[in-house]
Amino acid sequence: MPRNALAALLLLMPVAAQAASAQAASGQAASAKAASVQTACTAPTPPPASEKPAKPALPQKPACLDAKGGCPGWEAYTYNDGIKAYNAQLGPFRTSAEAYARKLKAFADGSVAYANCEMQSLQ
Known about the structure:
- The protein has one domain.
- Helix content is 68%, strand content 0%.
- It has three helices and no strands.
- The termini are close together.
């Protein structure tokens, strides 16, 4: 029974019934302790921060790109080549970022399962 519901129920019960209920609850707590000794909850481990992928750096935008006259050909071609290289790096980055995100989700799901296990051991 959830803790809030138990507290509300105890407020409504007569004093003699509360004493009997407290004795029953202590018996349940002892059996829960015995059950928690038998089944230990395992805390999940987070993925190492060293596995977090680094986003590739965007090439520096030349100042002449915003100028009214535009950029000379060589500078525009250099910037375009940098953008192409950046776009080529985004594919592998996305793959590794999605893999890391899956590990983080598994850690979060494991944390919820661990918290539920610990709560069950208290009942």
